[in-house]
Design goal:
The chain is an alpha/beta fold. It is 44% helix and 16% strand. It has 4 domains: 131 residues, Rossmann fold (3-Layer(aba) Sandwich); 172 residues, 3-Layer(aba) Sandwich (Rossmann fold), CATH 3.40.50; 71 residues, Helicase, Ruva Protein, domain 3 (Orthogonal Bundle), CATH 1.10.8; 55 residues, Arc Repressor Mutant, subunit A (Orthogonal Bundle).
Length: 459
């Protein structure tokens, strides 16, 4: 009988278990290594690409808490994420088994084991590892599961609706408008739409319209000919031409002025661009995705955004929920960012307390996923111990944006209209915990006008 090529590492502090395990497993698997010292695990993982690790949960004399097993489980998954880990203990219960699976274990075995059952579990784990090996890193990253969907992490009903909409819309040519607050993942959604579309093998061009000045708009989007203006030293294609055959993502489209909205609408209707300095129209073939954090429907009512342009870009709308409306996902995101930054900053032993996770899950997160990402990175860098605690994070009271917590105080000679306006906007934002609608109502201005003042004063 040919042996399974799977490579197995058995870690247990009892020599009898190691001997019995090796005698059984070497009959069925090509490579079986055993050790009674868990501190050898990092070195062994560097030497050999193990497919499966059979890991005991307790090593200290008389220990039954399984803390050591969960510690080494975490270490293994950080050092070799694709290795399948099967935990073993003589003191198991349902709660421990559930926790083991949540923390990344493939399965859970009680000692003394049943030979047939153990072999079946190991063979399944080996097949899982073989499947992972066959996937490229990119396809694994884009594995469409409820937990990890093409760049998104989340299991909440709100995110499930987003996933379903992306799946339905992606393979069509429909223009998509993505709406959501800052930091909710609008670019992630745009890239997911592109990757799932028929244009996936072609270009994905992103233009941040909030960063493009009016004077450079036409040159950036439409291109220019040599000599079209002072610094035009050579011909250059614009982003619209560069995206031909692929997807053009216009981020922050709500920031466009009326005149630029008209120029963009003309191009989208004609499907042609004319480079600056020429009069020759050039055809374009793009799939258009736009995004904004601004209240475009309010802007249409106020005359700040063209209704005909809105109709052109929003064949389908995708609304990304703020993090406070998908609290089920916060723990998953915390664990994801902790893994990322522990690896980036070489903090493999750093954990996070349950009280910290609870505190972070209760926070309002006005900056959404981007704020959580930055908070986790900062905490990992600055934490002195081996566990993150609530005081390792700066969380603004009531969940108000951190930038609005401290209202600036001006001296008497600084009481200009601009300074007073900035102070009033800050006060309103603090009073209403960053709620734009309520702050705007208190100030007696529209939401759009308040957004403009926030941008104007750098708040």
């Amino acid at each position: 009988m040919s042996k399974d090529p799977c490579k197995i590492l058995l870690v247990d502090d009892e020599e009898d278990i190691l001997l019995a395990g090796k005698l059984l497993l070497k009959q069925h698997f090509a490579s079986v290594i055993t050790t009674s010292d868990p501190y050898r695990i990092p070195g062994l993982l560097q030497e050999t690409d193990f497919d499966v690790v059979l890991l005991d949960m307790n090593y200290s004399t008389g220990a039954t808490s399984s803390k050591e097993g969960f510690h080494w489980l975490k270490q293994i998954l950080q050092l070799s994420p694709k290795t399948q880990v099967i935990l073993m203990t003589a003191y198991g219960d349902i709660e421990m088994a559930v926790r083991a699976l949540k923390e990344g274990a493939t399965d859970f075995v009680l000692k003394p084991w049943q030979n047939d059952k153990l072999l079946a579990i190991l063979r399944t784990a080996c097949q899982n590892k073989l499947g992972l090996k066959k996937r490229s890193a990119e396809s694994a990253e884009n594995n469409n599961t409820a937990y990890h969907y093409d760049g998104f992490i989340g299991v909440s009903p709100a995110m499930q609706r987003v996933y379903q909409t992306i799946d339905k819309v992606a393979r069509t040519e429909a223009n998509v408008l993505i709406l959501g607050e800052n930091g909710t993942g609008k670019e992630v959604a745009a890239r997911a739409l592109h990757r799932k579309s028929k244009r996936a093998d072609n270009a994905f061009e992103k233009v941040d319209l909030g960063a493009v000045s009016e004077t450079l708009f036409e040159s950036e989007l439409f291109g220019h000919a040599k000599g079209a203006f002072t610094d035009a030293k050579e011909d250059r294609i614009g982003r619209l031409e560069a995206a031909t055959g692929g997807t053009l993502f216009l981020d922050e489209i709500g920031n466009l002025s009326h005149s630029l909205q008209a120029k963009l609408l003309t191009v989208l209707q004609s499907r042609q661009v004319v480079r600056l300095g020429t009069n020759k129209p050039r055809p374009i073939d793009i799939r258009l995705i736009c995004a904004t954090n601004m209240p475009v429907y309010d802007m249409v009512k106020e005359g700040a955004f063209r209704q005909d342009l809105l109709y052109r870009i929003n064949t389908v709308e995708i609304h990304l929920p703020p993090l406070r409306e998908r609290r089920e996902d916060i723990k998953l995101l915390i664990e994801h960012f902790l893994r990322v930054y522990c690896e980036k900053y070489d903090r493999p032993n750093l954990g996070i307390s349950s009280s910290t996770i609870r505190r972070l899950s209760e926070y309002h997160w006005p900056g959404n996923i981007r704020e959580l990402d930055h908070a986790m990175e900062r905490a990992v860098i600055l934490c002195d111990g081996d566990e993150l605690h609530p005081d390792d994070f700066y969380l603004a009271p009531g969940g108000a944006p951190q930038h609005s917590q401290r209202v600036e105080v001006f001296s008497e000679n600084e009481y200009t209209l601009e300074a007073l306006e900035k102070m009033m906007v800050q006060k309103a934002l603090v009073k209403h915990s960053g709620n734009i609608t309520h702050a705007a109502k208190e100030l007696g201005i529209t939401r759009t006008a308040l957004y403009r003042r926030i941008e104007k004063h750098g708040l």
